[in-house]
Amino acid sequence: EEPKLKYERLANGVTEILQKDAASCMTVHDKFLALGTHFGKVYLLDIQGNITQKFEISSVKINQISLDEGGEHVGVCSEDGKVQVFGLYTREGFHENFDCPIKVVALHPQFSRSNNKQFVTGGNKLLLYERNWLNRWKMMSLHEGEGIITNIKWRANLIAWANNVGVKIYDISTKQRITNVVRDNMSLRPDMYPCSLCWKDNCTLIIGWGTSVKICVVKERDPSEMRDLPSRYVEIVSAFDMEFYICGLGPLADQLVTLYYVKEDEEEFRARPRLDIIQPLPETCEEISSDALTVRQFQENECRDYRLEHSEGESLFYIISPKDIVVAKERDQDDHIDWLLDKKKYEEALMAAEISFKNIKRHDKIGMAYINHLVERGDYDAAARKCQKVLGKNMDLWENEVYRFKTIGQLKAISQYLPRGDLRLRPAIYEMILHEFLKSDYEGFAMLIREWPGELYNNLTIVQAVCDHLKKDPTNRTLLTTLAELYTYDQRYDKALEIYLKLRHKDVYQLIHKHNLFSSIEDKIVLLMDFDKEKAVDMLLDNEDKISVCVPGYQIGHLPCLYLHKLFKRDHHKGQNYHERQISLYAEYDRANLLPFLRDSTHCPLEKVYVCICRMGNCRRALQMIMEELGDVDKAIEFAKEQDDAELWEDLISYSIDKPPFITGLLNNIGTHVDPILLIYRIKEGMEIPNLRDSLVKILQDYNLQILLREGCKKILVADSLSLLKKMHRTQKRGVRVDEENICESCHTPILPSDTAKNFSVVVFHCRHMFHKECLPSPGMVQFCNICSAKRRGPGSGILEMKK
Predict the structure, then answer these.
(1) CB 444: neighbour CB atoms within 10 A?
(2) I need a surface site. Which of 88, 269, 434, 490 has the fewest CB within 10 A?
(3) Model pTM?
């Protein structure tokens, strides 16, 4: 997981100090650091560790340094009992030598104010020093008798200190001690495992001692419960044990930073100290992060040699050991991005940089690093896709990347993502990519031509390159289509139209409409119709003002029926000159629409109309048109004779029975097809029929002629039948040659036995089919050839039987 803190050594002047001396304590202010050493010196350092001031306090170890909130006064105590309090910018000060080591000193946080000139010291007693109105220091003992005081922390009006027994809190405003938190593990030596104190805020004290952590909150007591009790009390809100020994504590928002001293085995092998971030819970804690710190000479350090100090202004934590000072700070967005880059999570790093672009300081090249990583990995398409986001409007970077992709042979990968809007690369770049596609990928080349605006490259150069390739492959459809598109962009529409027509390409219609090329297609209409009739016809009809209807007139023999059909649907009178021809076109190509056309058209010859209706199978309708619209009885009779349909004759008689001229025509012509009696019986009495006598005479003559014809035909039939019968009799009386080449039609073996001396029996039919007698189904019963009977052929009858 990603660490929560980052670390760096405090160097510069600190390095020089710790080479000759050892750190014993350090106090942190927002503006500077105060470092105490084992040789009794106090150094004031800037945040980078550079020495700004040096004080010779003692010849022995400095135990504690205290600063007020303003950073104007310093309190120092040492192992030889010296205590000094002095101003960094004033001459005021306090100097005192005690007869015992002073382990800790703490200034009032507002020491700079005249009414807060107070500080406390801790040795075998807790002493409060306060300067009175006479400018003299007054001392008061706050606590004694429980061993050496090892730690003091002063926050607002509360002083917390630790001795051998536990931790106490004193309220300086009420001059009352308000709590006593007993030490849990009394077996640990307090000088070897000192107590760590830390105020999280004005009311929350964090105590770490041995492996135990307690979080105490100072609360106001209810006035009704006070009696003789202090006005405040302490509630322990969280208490839990840790795995290792605590060397220091520091708050981090609602979490806790803890410095541990680690013993890995019973022989007290000293491991690297650990700095953990934990989330306190009422009875336990949750580990957020844990880091083992490699401090100099950690193998020689004890628990008491480590300290943790923190800066309240920033989330800075200083890990102090005798020979090293390490600064831990919260990782910022730059550090987060560094970690992502180390883990090769470039996508997340780039996203994080975009979100926090105002706060990052050193990651302006994440995108390029990501692209380089993708290229190295061989993910060229992803790398090219990221170029859009990373390179943005920097045309120089774009050109560099294009040439890099060319070098590695991946121009195709980056082609889809090149700038093509207001910001563009040099035309040579686009032409180079088009040439690359033209060498190996015609489809990709065609796609780029369609997607890229023509202004990106020199059109004439690309046209020439395509023409050169077409010389090698003149029928390549992809190249021809692309060339047409290039011609279109170059406004050479005639060449584009020629190619589209050659390819029978559907875009030809869009080209004609878009660029108004109707005048160029008058001699190409048949070709257009040939590969898309519907579009061609719609285009012709929609643009009659640009393409005259008479234009296809000379091509009428080739014009599909569809054009005239749609023209007729729009206007029944347009194209009337072609209506007669249109009948045959409908009959050949579109019979379903012929009848509606014949019904609606007023420009078709009637003779053509009734012939077509008849051919369509509606003979009665055709006869009706002849009789009603033409009124021509001769044509009606001729039509009925041609069809030779009794129902048509019945219709003709029914229509004519009340029309004397029609009856005359029927009487003159009906005799050879219909019995005239049927007509004569239906004539009403009293009807005057012109030329009735002549018509009746003709009927009788026709009847006599029919009788004579029948008698003549009968005589001829009888004579022919007798002649054929005699011929058949002579034929069947002839013998049939049977030799060894003939085979039995049943068993397919020679009809004659190989030994003719033996008896055999053969059956030969008049149809010349031969069988062994024993091969027939019923040798004595069969009268006809099985083969010819199956085929229903007459000549197979009769039997010739040959025996020996």
Answers:
(1) 18
(2) 269
(3) 0.56
